[in-house]
Amino acid sequence: MVIVVPYHQDERLPGDLLPLPGREPVLVVDPELPPGDLWTRLAALDEAVAAAVADAPGPVTVVSGDCLMAVAALAGAQRAGLDPALVWFDAHGDVHTLASSTSGYPGGLSLRLAMGGDPALLADRLGLRPVVEERVLLVGARDLDPAEVSFLAASRVRRTTVTGLCAADAPPGPLIVHVDLDVVDPAELPGLLFPAPGGPPASEVVAAVRRLRATGRVAVLDIACPWQRVADPSGRTALLDALIPRDRAAGQ
Fold first, then answer.
1. What is residue 24's predicted lDDT score, i.e. its pLDDT?
2. What is the pLDDT of residue 252?
3. Which long-range CB contacts under 8 A does 153-161 form with residues at least 24 apart?
4. Average pLDDT, whole number, for the chain?
5. Which of the four, 16, 173, 175, 220, has the lowest number of CB atoms within 10 Å?
6. How far is CA 56 from CA 70, 73, 123, 218, in A?
7. In sequence order, which residues have a C-beta less than 8 Å from that of residue 152 and are 6 or more positions away?
8. Is residue 108, in this structure, part of any structural domain at all?
9. Number of domains present in the structure of the chain
10. Euclidean distance between CA atoms 162 and 203, whole angstroms
11. Are 214 and 126 in contact (CB under 8 A)?
12. Is 248 within the bounds of a domain?
């Protein structure tokens, strides 16, 4: 199943920013968010997404405009009885806390939230169990802030490149594979909100994700599309078409 969450953080996106290929079944999660601060609204959105993931049959693909949806995907997989590890494709580290972030951008906290950082923001509200560091693999990160460099150097989070990723590198057990599409080189994928030069071509990202799917252990494929409108979205459509499993068997 493909679950579409047309949001960047708590902002509703126009539908054409997520140019999905014609796939069935597709579930659009678009709840009415409550008044309140960003994290209150995000918790409500994540609760709806977590419930959809928990109820979905078989492997699930989540497509949204934001890395924070990976936290909801993790909560949903845990509610379904799984104890997944994380393989995190991203040009950035996403391992900030509120205290370490200089920009204050919430998406930069995404992976750290999944590992237990700032639990009051989302984890406590969703009943999330943090993923321990040794069960996290960060793939393709190349644009890191000094605080992220320090944290990763002292942590047990493992790192690799997109090209160098082998299926054997993945942590044991079921997997949530998160792919922020800014891991792709921006010369090939224009319009990214946070472009980071020096990345791999899209074909290498697709090949690496397929190597992981071939293990049969990918419970959730979470795809974040942090981008702006472009004149020609055909490249985006082709990339999503290549990443999203064509049927349940392909998603395993």
1. 63
2. 40
3. 155/95, 156/132, 157/95, 157/115, 157/133, 158/134, 161/200
4. 94
5. 16
6. 16, 11, 21, 14
7. 93, 95, 138, 144, 159
8. yes
9. 1
10. 10
11. no
12. no
Handedness of CA 78, 216, 168, 161 (dihedral sign): negative
CATH number of the domain where residue 63 is located:
3.40.800.10
H/E segment holding residue 76: helix 69-79
CB 166 within 8 A of CB 211: yes
Per-residue confidence (pLDDT) for residue 251, from 0 to 100: 39
pTM greater than 0.70 (yes/no): yes
* pLDDT tens profile 75-111: 999 999 999 999 999 999 999 999 999 999 999 999 9
Inside any domain, residue 249: no
Q: Give the span between the Cα atoms of 112 and 169, in whole angstroms.
A: 20
Is the peptide bond prior to 25 cis by the omega test (within 30 degrees of 0)? yes
**The dihedral sign for the CA sequence 149, 154, 156, 159:** positive
Check if the beta carbon of residue 82 is closer than 8 Å to that of residue 170.
Answer: no
Domain that holds residue 173: 2-243
The predicted model gives 128-150 an average pLDDT of: 97
Tell me the residue length of the chain.
252
* Tokens at 74, concatenated: 């993790």
